[in-house]
Amino acid sequence: MKRLLVTGAGGNLGRPLSTLAASQFDTTSIYYHHSTVGGGNPVQLDLREAQAVTALINTIRPDVIIHAAASERSDDMVETNRVAAINISQSAQETGARLIAISTDLVFDGTAPPYDEEAHPTPLSPYGRVKAENEQRFLLYNNCLIVRTSIIYDLHPSNNQVKWLQGLIEKGQSIPLFVDEIRQPIWAWNLAAVLIELGNSPVTGVMNVAGPQSLSRWQYGCALLSAMGHQPELLAQPVYAAQIAPQRPRDCTLSLSKARSTLKTHLLDLNTALALAREKLRLSGPTNLNNNQSMI
Question: Which of 17, 88, 101, 121 has its CA 20 to 30 A from that of 209?
């Protein structure tokens, strides 16, 4: 059985990814903030600690590393993402492991969609800039695949999107949703299935993997609220990013031609995925999972 190392295994993507991976790989699941990982052997590790990262990877000798950990909001976000990428990349090269690194559509400025894999990054935000920088670092390694994706959602209460919506609802505040910002939300379990497939694939370079629909945050947010059992018309407020956040990219639509021609896993539309997410949540029953954000 192949050995797989998953970073960020307690996060929005890492939890379903480690769950699926454990049935197909000998999986080690790295977490930082808390140990609620989906599957595999959980290991607490700070990816900023180079010696600790090297020691673990040299011990495990994974065939594949999926670097799904990310820090988006912490004060040291840029340095955290940069250092973690350096340490993971170096260890992958030293051991010869296949490396799959998760990137973002925010490496683009949103002015010239759709963006294919050859498009030159033009990030606007600090997060987008450090992710673009990390892409270039990872691609120096010839056994690496960069997977660019978009908003990762689920109905699990630990999902960052759900927590944000639920938090505003509990405070009795209206939910501002941009009608002029376009993204391609993808269900966490759908993306996890794609990554498992790619873990068994020799594909390298860059691949865009996102939801098949380009949706405004208004469309996406209203659908998510409905799936959570709320009435979006009573809670959501349409707002324009162009007026209140002009520095944000408007349309980060990714071309999915390469993914569609390469993958066997089907990219699910929002309604189909939300129906499956509702059923998965129903079957899982009550949960007491820690709602901390999963960072590095």
Answer: 88
The residue with tokens 């002009």 is 246
Do the beta carbons of residue 253 and residue 205 sit within 8 Å? no
pTM for the structure as a whole: 0.92
- Rama region for 61: left / alpha / beta (φ>0; ψ in -120 to 50; rest): left
What is the domain-level CATH number for residue 29? 3.40.50.720
- Residue 151 located in a structural domain: yes
What is the share, in percent, of the chain residues with pLDDT greater than 90?
82
The residues, ordered by sequence, that sit 6+ positions from 216 with a Cβ below 8 Å of its Cβ are 177, 178, 179, 180, 181, 182
The range of the structural domain enclosing residue 176 comes to 3-284
In whole angstroms, what is the distance from residue 226 CA to residue 275 CA?
11
**Residue 290 belongs to some domain of the structure:** no
pLDDT digits (tens, 9 = 90+) for 33-55: 766 778 889 999 999 999 999 99
